[in-house]
Amino acid sequence: MVYNNSINVIISICINSISVFGIVFAGLFANNKYTYLSTIRSTPQFISSELILGILIMTIMCVSNSFNYVDIAHNQICVWNIIIMGPVYLMFLSDYTSRDRYNFF
């Protein structure tokens, strides 16, 4: 159930960004240099995907003039957001296709 809160999109972005810290701490406390090196390698990939995802969500919020999920959904009654923001979605897809692996969200 989605609560009708005015900042629930920002809260979702913050909770989604915690995954980067989990990977960094797991690699740091594994007491293995190869795990630590792979953590250093994968952390920038996660940060770049978080940036692109954040830019995508921020543009959706700017188009709908709201931080609320319900208002964003009501804004799509006439025209969907994917039609309005086609270039931003192409940037999002090109970011995922340019990498060697998939990130888990």
Features:
about 100 residues; elongated; mainly alpha; about 0% strand
Architecture overview:
The chain is mainly α. It has one domain. It contains 5 helices and no strands. α1 packs antiparallel against α2 and α2 runs antiparallel to α5. The longest helix has 32 residues. It is elongated and about 55 Å long. The two termini are 19 Å apart.
Task: Tell me the β content.
Answer: under 5%
Number of helices: 5
What are the segments in which pLDDT stays under 50 over at least 5 consecutive residues? Answer: none
Task: Label the overall shape.
Answer: elongated
Give the H and E element order.
Answer: HHHHH
Query: Could you tell me the number of beta strands?
Result: 0
Set out the fold topology.
Elements: H1 8-28, H2 33-64, H3 69-75, H4 81-84, H5 86-97
Put the structure in a nutshell.
The protein is an all-alpha fold. The protein is built from five helices and no strands.
